[in-house]
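Discrete fold record:
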Amino acid sequence: MNRKRHVRRVVAAVGMLVLTSGIYLGGLQASGNFHEVKAGEFYRSAQPSPDALSRYIDQHGIRTVINLRGASPGRAWYDDEIKVSAAKGVEHIDFPMSDRAILSPERSMELLALMRDAPKPILIHCKAGADRTGLASVIYLQQLGGVDEETAEWQLSPLYGHVALPGIGPYAMDTSWEDLEKVLGLDS
């Protein structure tokens, strides 16, 4: 009898954890997963709707949008993003990368240079604003934002919807960061 009760409690606890996590992650997506990374300089989000993009530009003075999904002419989300950016006089940059493929240190350095040289404030996004955007945010904060490595790494965490376990796709972003850390001479 005690064993059955214990098993039920464990199953209930795991169920509550899964439910709570699902509600949290759903809330991130419903909110557009928009976050200030460095005030007045760098912001991150999921794929913004045209209205959300217009609002972010107006409220935060965004001067550059970096799309980590890559150019997709003819797709509504992309065409709308280009249209809003052009109408607002905002530079739009496509930097294609996959959340399921390791970004080489060379490509990571290209992204770093792009973020360094782009007019600020920057809004960077991917589809969910969790994995690719998380990696870009870690790189930006640690290399350009004057933030220590440990603090910067929180950008690539479940707080922003990034769930990485070895063997699943988004883990490639963690591996990409670890590879770049070695090139940069950072302790990990």
